[in-house]
Write a structure and sequence with these properties.
single chain; mainly alpha; elongated; membrane; transmembrane helix; YtrH family sporulation protein; transmembrane; Spore_YtrH
Length: 108
């Protein structure tokens, strides 16, 4: 169980970091290009959400194959672990987008 929580936490923070880092760097780039950074950061954060999820769970179709192969033969534990990793990664990406939206709405 400890290994699951460790991997789930890494999935969360990887997805969170992809969204947050991408949005912050896009904002910095928009400052250099003399465009409004707040709108660009929000747009990039929303667009990166699905890619952060993909990056956090491994970037391939393997997690889906694990779910399919184990569920077809009746082993639910590995499939549930993969679903858990995906959920934690989604939560991390969503929290990153929410943080950028919060900064967008409360920033100067």
């Amino acid at each position: 169980m400890d290994d699951f929580l460790t991997k789930a936490a890494f999935s969360f923070f990887i997805a969170f970091g992809v969204v947050l880092g991408g949005a912050l760097l896009a904002g910095m780039g928009s400052v250099f290009l003399f465009t409004p950074p707040k709108e660009k950061m929000l747009q990039v954060a929303s667009n990166l959400k699905i890619w952060a999820l993909v990056a956090a769970v491994g970037g391939t179709i393997d997690p889906i194959r694990v779910i399919e192969s184990h569920m077809l033969v009746g082993y639910l534990s590995p499939a549930m672990q993969q679903i858990g990793y995906i959920l934690f990664a989604f939560l991390g990406a969503h929290m990153g987008v929410e943080l950028i939206q919060w900064l967008h709405n409360n920033g100067g």
